[in-house]
């Protein structure tokens, strides 16, 4: 009864729900996942971007983005950096 | 820009024209574009290279931005350092 | 450099819930000619009209304004942005 979940299957299950994305360069994004491709480039809706500026977290709201998969470090399904 | 169907077409239309190239590590180039490839490796002539250096004055802690320029007859730019290319004469 | 499956048919298993998912390649088709903001990993950003892009996320834009740290730095008529520097492309209005 071992249920193996492939990494991209997990992301596929996240479509339509919130996803927390941690980038390699200390940026973080949280948005609703609309879709992604093999390179984990992603389309996200209702995005909040968190940037560290002089040790202070700055928030930016974005309606819809295509995020380059190149700079993604970690994906947290359902996660929220504010929680 | 009606004749453009791919981003690299913009570079093709800039052949033999002067272009502005923004590179990594605060380096800017202005020169005539002779050749390019799909990596955006480029050959430029009559180039003015500008490098911006940020220094901090040790006594006053003032941040000084220094711009250093030099001229180069002809150079090759490796594509991976390129951030942006623009035909400067069409710049508003 | 990652290549978007821009022109490839979407046959991979991760695109199997095709009803309500908006994949990167469909997004790219719908943003052409629209006002967008392109954020680079270097934290500079470019707003303008998206003329075209390719599978490397190379971008050609018109009427482009360059911002660094929220400050307008330069304006370009036409501009080419090399795709490897792009972190994300944001639309002004949502695409359904």
Automatic annotation (TrEMBL), chain A:
Family note: Belongs to the snRNP Sm proteins family.
Keyword Acetylation recorded: yes
PANTHER family (alphabetical): U6 SNRNA-ASSOCIATED PROTEIN, U6 SNRNA-ASSOCIATED SM-LIKE PROTEIN LSM5
Pfam name, any one: LSM
Domain of life of the source: Eukaryota
Cited InterPro entries: LSm5, LSM_dom_sf, Sm, Sm_dom_euk/arc
Keywords tagged on the record: Acetylation, mRNA processing, mRNA splicing, Nucleus, Ribonucleoprotein, RNA-binding, Spliceosome
GO BP: any one term: mRNA splicing, via spliceosome
Described function: Plays a role in U6 snRNP assembly and function. Binds to the 3' end of U6 snRNA.
Species for this entry: Triparma strigata
Subunit record text: LSm subunits form a heteromer with a doughnut shape.
Primary location group: nucleus
Protein name: U6 snRNA-associated Sm-like protein LSm5
Subcellular localization: Nucleus
UniProt xrefs under SUPFAM superfamilies: Sm-like ribonucleoproteins
Gene Ontology, cellular component aspect: Lsm1-7-Pat1 complex; spliceosomal complex; U4/U6 x U5 tri-snRNP complex; U6 snRNP
GO molecular function: RNA binding
Ranges where the Sm domain occurs: 6-81
TrEMBL record, chain B:
GO biological process: mRNA splicing, via spliceosome
Domain Sm stretches: 6-91
Cell compartment(s), UniProt: Nucleus
GO cellular component: Lsm2-8 complex; spliceosomal complex
A Pfam cross-reference name: LSM
UniProt keyword list: mRNA processing, mRNA splicing, Nucleus, Ribonucleoprotein, RNA-binding, Spliceosome
Gene Ontology MF terms: RNA binding
Family affiliation: Belongs to the snRNP Sm proteins family.
Protein name: Sm domain-containing protein
UniProt organism field: Triparma verrucosa
TrEMBL record, chain C:
Gene Ontology terms for molecular function: RNA binding
Domain Sm: 23-95
Pfam family, any one: LSM
One GO process term, biological-process aspect: mRNA splicing, via spliceosome
Subcellular location: Cytoplasm; Nucleus
UniProt KW keywords: Cytoplasm, mRNA processing, mRNA splicing, Nucleus, Ribonucleoprotein, RNA-binding, rRNA processing, Spliceosome, tRNA processing
Positions of the UniProt region annotated as Disordered: 1-24
GO CC annotations on file: nucleolus; P-body; sno(s)RNA-containing ribonucleoprotein complex; spliceosomal complex; U4/U6 x U5 tri-snRNP complex; U6 snRNP
Main location per the UniProt record: cytoplasm
Family per record: Belongs to the snRNP Sm proteins family. SmF/LSm6 subfamily.
Protein name as it appears in the record: Sm domain-containing protein
Origin species: Triparma verrucosa
């Amino acid at each position: 009864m071992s249920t193996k979940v492939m990494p991209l299957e997990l992301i596929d299950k996240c479509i339509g729900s919130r996803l927390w994305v941690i980038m390699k360069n200390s940026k973080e994004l949280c948005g609703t996942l609309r879709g992604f491709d093999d390179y984990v480039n992603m389309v996200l809706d209702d995005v909040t971007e968190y940037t560290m500026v002089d040790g202070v977290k700055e928030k930016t709201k974005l309606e819809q983005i295509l995020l380059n998969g190149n700079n993604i470090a970690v994906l947290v399904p359902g996660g929220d950096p504010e929680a | 820009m009606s004749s453009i169907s791919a981003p690299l077409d913009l570079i093709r239309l800039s052949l033999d024209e002067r272009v502005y190239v923004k590179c990594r590590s605060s380096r800017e180039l202005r020169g005539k574009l002779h050749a390019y490839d799909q990596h955006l490796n480029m050959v430029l002539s009559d180039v003015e290279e500008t490098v911006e250096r940020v220094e901090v004055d040790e006594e006053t802690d003032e941040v000084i931005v220094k711009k250093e320029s030099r001229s180069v007859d002809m150079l090759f730019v490796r594509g991976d350092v390129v951030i942006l290319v623009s035909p400067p004469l069409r710049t508003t | 450099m990652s290549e978007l499956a821009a022109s490839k048919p979407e046959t991979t298993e991760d695109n199997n819930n095709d009803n309500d998912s908006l994949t990167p390649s469909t997004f790219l088709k719908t943003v052409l000619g629209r006002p967008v903001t392109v954020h680079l990993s270097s934290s500079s950003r470019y707003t303008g009209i998206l003329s075209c892009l390719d599978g490397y996320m190379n971008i050609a834009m018109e009427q482009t304004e360059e911002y660094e740290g929220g400050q307008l730095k330069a304006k370009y008529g036409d501009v080419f942005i090399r795709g490897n520097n792009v972190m994300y492309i944001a639309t002004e209005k949502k695409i359904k």
